[in-house]
Write a structure and sequence with these properties.
7-stranded mixed β-sheet, 5 helices, alpha+beta, globular, 134 residues, Cytidine Deaminase, domain 2
Length: 134
């Protein structure tokens, strides 16, 4: 099994879309990230009636940061139908702010062909690169 299949399977293990309360649903989207230290962290989306929810990718990143890491190598996001999808704009921004090399984070865009894209391709003219030069 290659790393993309492993990440996909780890995300699917936690996906489990469910209703938490009349105000919160969780798990329709799941994500798995591989850190530069080869650790895997997962997360699910949390959708709330007050829009204070969290995407699966940011949930996985929060789990990673809670465990003392901040450098991501690979990301897989699994949509409700089981296919993989690209992170939303907020998640892209969140990831790129983690490190000056975050543009090299590899994101799976097609599970079958193992097609990927680097984060810097999704945010080609990111506003914050100059801050790393300071």
């Amino acid at each position: 099994m290659d790393i993309w299949d492993k990440l996909y399977n780890e995300a699917r293990k936690v996906q489990n879309g469910r209703i938490i309360s009349p105000f919160i649903e969780a798990g329709s989207v799941a994500a798995a990230i591989l850190t530069k230290s080869s650790n895997i962290y997962v997360g699910v989306c949390i959708d709330t009636a007050s829009t204070l929810g969290m995407c699966a990718e940011r949930n996985a990143i929060a789990n990673m940061i809670t465990n003392g890491e901040h450098l991501i190598d690979k990301v897989v996001a699994v949509t409700p139908d089981g296919s993989v999808g690209s992170p939303c704009g907020a998640c892209r921004e969140y990831m790129i702010q983690l490190s000056k090399n975050s543009g090299n984070i590899e994101i799976l865009t097609d599970l079958e062909t193992k097609q990927t894209v680097n984060l810097k391709e999704l945010i080609p003219d990111w506003w914050g690169y100059s801050r790393y030069e300071e």
